[in-house]
């Protein structure tokens, strides 16, 4: 079979056992791997052979799950990380160094906003946040000679804004830089950013891919499409010799595998944000039912969003599946099968109304998490985004009264019943 469908890839991709090997992906819970002689090990350290010698760099369980995600996204290679934040950091840091600049949508997760605007700034890497809804001529003013990439989220967390991938791929490529897209909320079941021109995709696998709030993790996938050598002066880390590996040049030695090889051999070697094989195994299990769960998440979220939209106590609802939503046209383009299970909405009255509403919920839990099988809720201004001022919140597309409702896969009537009683209370 040359090209399997998404549902089949969820189940079959990544682990292909040989004769006598276990049908289910094993957990290779080992830090080290044995070789017969010193020369075999030396060749691994020089990147002259492929293989396993230390789990901080590579592990068979981790690699099988990464391969499944790469297949789902349509990429050439992927690497797992210990968290989604680590994946985001590595994806940018793999091509940026002190003195460089990159551009990011302002409508992104609060932790990513802080990573880009505060932590990476301390490392000498500057980020310009742009409103992704601005016209091309305004966005193009953000590009500089030292700009190295553009970053956005397919569906923003928590605002639910849909990113115009094709447009930003065009703008990025016009200026000779790759587009990085965080595809966590949509997952490759509902959107494959590479098909719209994106070059690199990141995920917090902690969310829908795991699906059960059991395993923290992240992933970076490379499309293999961006020509690093055509922009060699911009990307010395990939196109100039790496003295820590005897002067090899990643773009020359590894071709379309250069980006992921560098992230593995250099960043993971030095920074070590490696997932445990146990967590990778749990993520692999979650991926087997991703296509089934995403359909139910989207079906339930559409029903709940329509209920909230007509409720007299609700001031506004942001869910791209609603025809009234600002991003509905983009959702029809990029997310025709549905977006995700996350809804943003606000209540009439003061900001405190959101807190009182959440405190009266019974089945729906208040948790610092999103996108798993159980319905949960959060007030970002008080929790995940509390480090931002009201002005910064609005710049990030997060209203101070915004409630983030992550709709699970329970019966939608029970979800709505809990919301209804809390609104009345």
Mean pLDDT: 94
- Helix/strand-derived class? alpha/beta
Order of helices and strands: HHHEHEHEHEHEHEEHHHHHEHEHEEHEH
- In DSSP terms (H or I, runs of 4 or more residues), the helix count works out at 17
- What is the straight-line distance between the termini? 56 Å
Total count of strands: 12
Helix percentage range: 25-40%
Characterization of the model:
With 425 residues, the protein is α/β, with parallel strands linked by helices. The chain contains 17 helices and twelve strands. The protein has a seven-stranded mixed β-sheet with strand order 1-7-6-5-4-2-3, sandwiched between helices. Strands 8-9-12-11-10 form a five-stranded mixed β-sheet, with helices on one face. α1 (6-12) packs antiparallel against α3 and α3 (60-73) packs parallel to α12 (277-287). The longest helix is centred in the last third of the chain and has 21 residues, at 290-310.
Furnish the topology, listing elements before pairings.
Layout: H1 6-12, H2 38-45, H3 60-73, E1 77-81, H4 84-93, E2 101-105, H5 110-122, E3 126-130, H6 136-140, E4 147-153, H7 165-174, E5 179-182, H8 187-190, E6 200-204, E7 218-222, H9 236-239, H10 250-254, H11 258-271, H12 277-287, H13 290-310, E8 314-318, H14 328-334, E9 342-347, H15 352-359, E10 365-366, E11 376-378, H16 390-395, E12 403-406, H17 412-424
Parallel strand pairs: 2-3, 2-4, 4-5, 5-6, 10-11
Antiparallel strand pairs: 1-7, 6-7, 8-9, 9-12, 11-12
């Amino acid at each position: 079979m040359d090209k399997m469908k998404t549902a089949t890839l969820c189940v079959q991709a990544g682990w292909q056992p040989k004769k006598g090997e276990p049908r289910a992906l094993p957990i290779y819970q080992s830090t080290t791997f044995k070789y017969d002689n010193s020369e075999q090990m030396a060749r691994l350290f020089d990147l002259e052979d492929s293989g396993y010698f230390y789990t901080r760099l590579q592990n068979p369980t981790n690699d099988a799950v990464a391969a499944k995600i790469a297949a789902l996204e349509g990429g050439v290679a992927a690497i797992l990380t210990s968290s989604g934040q680590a994946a985001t950091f590595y994806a940018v840091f793999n091509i940026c160094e002190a003195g460089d600049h990159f551009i990011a949508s302002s409508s992104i997760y609060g932790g990513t906003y802080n990573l880009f605007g505060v932590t990476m700034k301390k490392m000498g890497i500057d980020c310009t946040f742009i409103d992704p809804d601005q016209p091309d001529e305004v966005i193009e003013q953000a590009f500089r000679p030292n700009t190295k990439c553009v970053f956005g989220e397919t569906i923003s967390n928590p605002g639910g804004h849909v990113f115009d991938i094709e447009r930003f791929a065009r703008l990025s490529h016009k200026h000779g830089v790759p587009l990085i897209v965080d595809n966590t909320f949509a997952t490759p079941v509902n959107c494959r950013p590479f098909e719209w021109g994106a070059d690199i995709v990141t995920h917090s696998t902690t969310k829908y891919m795991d699906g059960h709030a059991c395993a923290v993790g992240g992933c970076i996938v490379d499309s293999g499409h961006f020509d690093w050598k055509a922009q060699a002066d911009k990307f010395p880390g990939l196109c100039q010799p790496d003295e820590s590996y005897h002067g090899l040049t990643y773009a020359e030695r590894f071709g379309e595998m250069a980006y992921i090889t560098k992230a593995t051999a250099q960043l993971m070697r030095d920074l070590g944000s490696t997932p445990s094989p146990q967590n990778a195994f749990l993520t692999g299990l979650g991926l087997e039912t991703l296509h089934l769960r995403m359909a139910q998440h989207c079906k339930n979220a559409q029903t709940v969003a329509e209920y909230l939209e007509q409720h007299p106590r609700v001031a506004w609802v942001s869910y791209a599946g609603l025809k009234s939503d600002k991003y509905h046209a983009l959702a029809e383009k990029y997310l025709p099968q549905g977006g995700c299970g996350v809804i943003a909405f606000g209540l009439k009255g003061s900001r405190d109304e959101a807190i009182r509403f959440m405190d009266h919920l019974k089945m729906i839990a208040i948790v610092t998490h999103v996108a798993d099988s159980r319905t949960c809720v959060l007030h970002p201004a008080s929790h995940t985004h509390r480090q931002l001022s009201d002005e910064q919140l609005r710049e990030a597309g997060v209203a101070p009264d915004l409630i983030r409702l992550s709709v699970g896969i329970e019966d939608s009537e029970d979800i709505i019943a809990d919301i209804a009683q809390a609104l009345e209370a």
